[in-house]
Amino acid sequence: MKIRTIALLVIAFLSKNVLASNFDLIKDDTAAKLYYTGNELVVKTAIDLLIDDSKLICKHPFEQVNQVGNHTVVIGIPDREPAFRVLLEQNKIDYKDVTGKWEAYKIITAADQLFVIGSDPRGTAYGVLELSRQMGVTPWVWWADVTPGKKAVVTITTDGEIHAPSVQYRGIFLNDEDWALMPWSTRTFEPTPRSGAIGPKTYARIFELLLRLRANTIWPAMHECTIPFFFVEGNKEAAEKYGIVVSNSHAEPMMRTNTGEWNSRERGAFNFLSNEKQVLSYWDERSKELAGGENIYTIGMRGIHDGRMQGVNSLDDETKVLHRIIDEQRKILARNNPGKNVEDIPQQFVPYKEVLKAYDNGLTLPDDVSLVWCDDNHGYIMRLSNPEEQKRSGGGGVYYHISYWGKPHDYLWLASTQPGLIYTEMKRAWDYNARRIWILNVGDIKPHEYLTEFFMDMAWDIDAFAGDKIYAHRQNWVNKVFGDIANKEINHILRQYYHLASQRKPEHTAWNQVEDWELRKMNPKNRYGLQPVKDSELSFSEFGDETERRLKGYNEIAELSMQVYEKQIPAHLKAAYFQLVHYPVLASASINKKHIYAQKARFYAESNPEAARTYSSLATAAYNEIAALDYHYNKDMLNGKWDLMMDMKPRDLPVFQAPVLPELSAGNCTPLKALPIEAKPFSFPANRYQESDRMIALNAADYTNNIALETIESLGHSGNAVRLPVAKKINAKQPHLEYKVTTSSNGIAKIKLGTIPMHPANGKAMRCAIVIDKQKPVEVTINAEFLSKKWAENVLRNQALNTVNVQFDKSGEHIIRIYSLDEEVLIDQLMIDFNLERKHYLIPVPFGDCSTSSMT
Known about the structure:
Layout: H1 2-15, E1 21-27, E2 30-31, E3 33-35, H2 41-57, E4 63-64, E5 72-76, H3 82-90, E6 105-110, E7 113-118, H4 121-135, E8 154-158, E9 169-174, H5 181-189, H6 200-212, E10 217-219, H7 235-241, E11 245-247, H8 258-261, H9 264-267, H10 276-289, E12 295-298, H11 315-336, E13 347-349, H12 354-360, E14 370-374, E15 396-401, H13 419-431, E16 437-443, H14 449-460, H15 470-482, H16 487-503, H17 517-522, H18 546-567, H19 574-604, H20 609-636, E17 695-699, E18 711-713, E19 720-724, E20 737-743, E21 747-755, E22 767-772, E23 778-781, H21 789-797, E24 800-808, E25 812-820, E26 825-833
Parallel strand pairs: 3-4, 3-5, 5-7, 9-10, 9-16, 10-11, 11-12, 12-13, 13-14, 14-15, 15-16
Antiparallel strand pairs: 1-2, 1-8, 6-7, 17-26, 18-19, 19-26, 20-25, 21-24, 21-26, 22-23, 22-25
Helix pairs in contact: 2-4, 6-7, 10-11, 13-14, 15-16, 16-18, 18-19, 19-20
């Protein structure tokens, strides 16, 4: 009976002709033929891209044919193309497991043909471009000049699995485009006499990138400096060609970009209360223009540009008016789309800034509207759907930043958000059922290449990610971009780059803030409330001089990157390496050197003028290094392809300006080796659980109890933060972290607990309890109110550091336990310090070491 059953299964399986097998996309330097008879625009676009890509790979590229023969890729959508369905049935290929799904595809072989089967046009296009990925062409082939190597043979293995996105709408927001994307587009790539008119040539390249990344949504650039998307001829058609859903940001209701579209001279005030007729007409016009198209409409209303709604005097007024506004907006959508139910037209409500207060004040939304939650602009999601909100038919989403202009300080220059943080917050969002819309604020796209792909890969396949797979994703990405060239070195460089930036982003190395409105009151000319450059909190004297440890880390990866760039990267990949690795690493190193050396120059100005002059010289040299890197990026590289795309000083903030140096009389510079040392020698103790230098410093992952918890790579100052579940009670049976330590001191000590500065998912507190031996638990609150002083400190540090005084009754062995009280928290580091007067910035725990021997 068993043998007969197995035989029947084998016969059934073979009859479908879908055994996993190989197919030569390219053989003998010749690509396969392509067969597609459908009329879907985005599929034709993907095929054109595949053909162009193959021209980079082999001598004889893909070409389209009118009939199916041997060595042919057959492409189609069985639901929409009867002839393709017949071909599938003739080859006994099952396609019904694909049909009806959202943006799904599968690739299988039958005889000497390869079938790309899509559930819909975008899904089919993703399947086509998967073939391009298999050939070695990355999404950054144009946007980062990642030129693939030549191949005479490319063989792929098919398994017939269905591939479909985890998140329905996945895309980017082009924001703060004033200093790079807009000038580069309008003056370098697509010159135009219309100031600020980012046109279809540029958007076609952006949409191509999104298609390659398997993204499907755009929030277009919308600052005052930019002509609105729909005001530039050809933009709408470019989106349709690449299958991109056009939506708008949180501040732009009903597909209108108010900053450039609302004409107050013609229409009056953008005030629903006093000018309702004009406002409704304004929304109605755009809705008619886009009738029948594929868009996601933002509903509700704010001010002209990212400000509070005009005309309301109280929160209750705002809530009441928003109810009326949303009702009228829904009527407009229903009226202009007679063939659809209004519930079937994608709509989103973004409870961002003051709008969240109105939502919490009782604003009710139609059930089909998607709730798109936001982070705090610095990567920490502020709110997620509660159990009732998770039941909404419109689902939830997230608007997430890896670039930002505003409090407490911008970060518009480089891209240094830890990948582990993106994973943590977006996985958390997924777990709270925010699965319909994910939008990433990418600023100007460059230099956010890797983080953008990381985010989109998560949105495409959430199950491929876990806390212990972050480094693996980066390693795979490095391999796809650079092949087997310097993989070990590049991964080490990037690991250290994100780690050092986790302690302080490059844009935050001046230790100052923006939007200090008290300063603006004192000086109205200080329009943006910019604080001057300040001394860092890094200690010159503690732990072997924290500043020198930081510089050592940056110098090591900068020097290694220089060796890789000059000696290992081949000519056809040098531009790609410069953009993706070399520039951000060297620029980060230089801005840190600029500020640290300038601080040392100011420190020694009176006591050691010669040393001060040397440090001043080093600080100035570091500033000039950034300028030289900038010049190469814009002018020298690729004959100026990216001219105006890289700006070393967006908004010309104090952090980017020439170093703040002391006034010194003329004199000699002290030789570098003779510069003064104040700090006593420091080395990390061999036994980290034993007191040394009157302290014990640990990473959270150094816990000693037997409990299996998720640790998240590339997260926190430790680079390996621990996810701690909630304890129902404080006892040994509940989830907790335990550390067995030995002190040689006793008495009062400071416990310093470093955590990831998260916000509660549903507006509650996030607390931890610290228990020393059998003492009474000490509670600490790790979340901080948005825009508060503590919140600003946390996001600039990328760590919430809470300090409490505790009593150690005796020296010797002790047990420290940490519990989560409200919802799961991410524990980063722990320090016990008996030196109550010690001032320092970092918890002194090693992160690997600054040598190539620690490369992973």
